[in-house]
Amino acid sequence: MAEYTTETARLLVVSRESAVLRPLWAIAEPNAWQIEVAASAWDAIERVQSGLTPHVFVLDLPRGDKDCLHILRWLRRLRPDLPVVVICCPEDAERKNEITRLGAQEVLIRPFDDARLESVIYGHLSPLGNTQGGIASEDIEQVGPDVFFVSASPITQRLRAQVQLLAEADVPVLILGEPGSGRYSVARLIHKLSVRSGFRFLRVNCADMPGELLEAELFGDGRPLSPGNGRPGLAKLERAEKGTIFLEEIAEMPLGLQERLVQVLQEKVLLNEGGDNKAALDVRILAGTSASIDRALSERKLREDLYYRLSAFTVQVPPLRQRKGEITVLLRHTMHQLAKHYGLPPRDFSPAVLASCQQYFWPGNLRELDNFVKRYLVSGDTELAFNDLVMRSTGTDGQHEARAYQIPIGYGGSGSLNREPDQSNAKSLKSLIQDVKSEAERNAIATALKKTGWNRKAAARLLQVSYRTLLYKIEQYHMTSSEPFLSPLPAGKLSLQNTTNRGSGKES
Predict the structure, then answer these.
(1) Which of 24, 23, 90, 30 is nearest to 56 (CA)?
(2) Do the beta carbons of residue 432 and residue 439 sit within 8 Å?
(3) Averaged pLDDT for residues 7-26
(4) How far apart are CA 25 and CA 19, in angstroms?
(5) Which residues of 405-415 are buried (b: 16+ CB within 10 A; e: fewer)?
(6) Distances (CA, A) of 501 to 172, 428, 434, 440, 491
(7) Where are the beta strands (DSSP E) in 73-129?
């Protein structure tokens, strides 16, 4: 369960039913939650407008009351980030999709037990307990599984305001930005704030697959079209029915497929390859690219008619070098996310490293920052110089970008940045991740051995691996009983599998 050490969890409840209020009071007391009850939906709206800032909104939907759902539309405009839990009667269960479409994150149908209600509320309160290192919760918004949108600087706050307006328009949007700048997070945010948030969000990277495979992925395999039937060959455009699809690197899509996409945007139907069978589509299309639009058009990599249909509404995602004010927030948030994934204790950033990160150019944007934090999590600034950390984090692509931008890399003794990059320590991203896994695995073994007084059979049982595997690992890492104990892992994180199969979820 989450712990709320810095802020009391506040719930705003709209209900007159003792059958709802009684269990809520019973759950709230041991959890130290603060509950405020509103007699009606409009009373709740007035309280939110007057400055009340609940962390979860609970709406008990009266039997057969259709007008009460209007509050969800108002809440989406006033507080789009506010989690809403709706409780309804069994006869209103068929309206679940409508309630979700209007903005509810959870719909509970009576009867349900107190444990279920407590679990749902805890699930939406958990971000409150995850704010670390003085990061304000309103600056960090979860927009998908392991995907966050951070608006801790004026430029990203303006971006979020623009996104909120576009989310309500339900039109195609073209998202522009450098590689790794956060185009995917912006697309997820548009979907989350839109009326389509209760339906699927799908993503296709047009640069990741050849034309034939991309055609099958987007438009189907040529079999008769039947949206929603769940067959394996169903096109992603069909699977995203009533939801949103994000087409990354749209300028890399073959021209023939771009023509078919124009038909989808123009006619709102999906034609099969022969053109004799079609299915109506209700899908919002978002597209993104890191390419220069002018160059893509002049080189005929992007069709003009497709560009004009997508670009009526355009979002420009700023690179990280224009968001220096939120680098510290990003570093600390990423550190805590990665530490949780890898089962390692988070490290603090020294003032010298924070100062150097503020001056660094970050050509790889958020992706490069994510890789840097991975390396720092394992090594810390006391073990590797800042120059080595940055060069290892950038990988092959980062080296190319560093040469292209002529960026300053390197940490001097005074905390300033060096002007002469040294690429001799550069490592590929694959090698970097392997280093992280190996270090975490070695830490787990060291912790188990210390806990068991170097009883290797007991340590193997604790790690849930075979005795032979543990002996092999001890030999592989050249471990002896006389070496100093490594960084301790949190309780419950000793399995070798836990240290090797987790990711960070950062996307472009």
Answers:
(1) 24
(2) no
(3) 82
(4) 11
(5) eebbbbbeeee
(6) 36, 19, 11, 11, 18
(7) 84-88, 106-109
**Burial class (CB within 10 angstroms; exposed 0-12, middle 13-18, buried 19+) of 18:** exposed
Amino acid at 493: K
Say if CB 74 and CB 97 are below 8 A apart.
no
Q: 36: which 2 tokens?
A: 């405020």
Distance in angstroms (rounded) separating the CA atoms of residues 247 and 438: 35
Window from 69-73, 102-106, 210-214, 391-395 with minimum mean pLDDT: 391-395
Query: How far apart are alpha carbons 23 and 304 in whole angstroms?
Result: 59
| Whole-number percent of the chain with pLDDT over 70 | 74
Contact between residue 324 and residue 358 where contact means Cβ atoms under 8 Å apart: yes
Give dist(CA 471, CA 493) in Å, integer.
20
Residue 88: which residues within 8 A CB-CB, separation 6 or more? Answer: 61, 95, 96, 99, 107, 108, 109, 110
Which tokens sit at 465? 């691996």
Centre a 10 Å sphere on the Cβ of residue 475 and count the other Cβ atoms it contains. 9
Q: How far apart are CA 400 and CA 33, in angstroms?
A: 52
Question: CA angle, 196 as apex, 195 and 202 as ends, to 5°?
Answer: 155
The pLDDT of residue 65 = 65
Domains of the chain in start order, with CATH, are 10-129 (3.40.50.2300), 140-316 (3.40.50.300), 320-508 (1.10.8.60)
User: What is the reported pLDDT for 325?
Assistant: 83
Amino acid in the structure at residue 280 = A
Cα dihedral 218→224→228→233 (10° resolution):
-50
Write the single-letter amino acid at 77: R
From 428, 350, 337, 333, select the one nearest 384 (Cα to Cα).
350
What are the counts of helices (DSSP H) followed by strands (DSSP E) for the chain? 19, 14
Model confidence at 489, in pLDDT bands (50, 70, 90)? very low
Tokens of 393: 């984090």
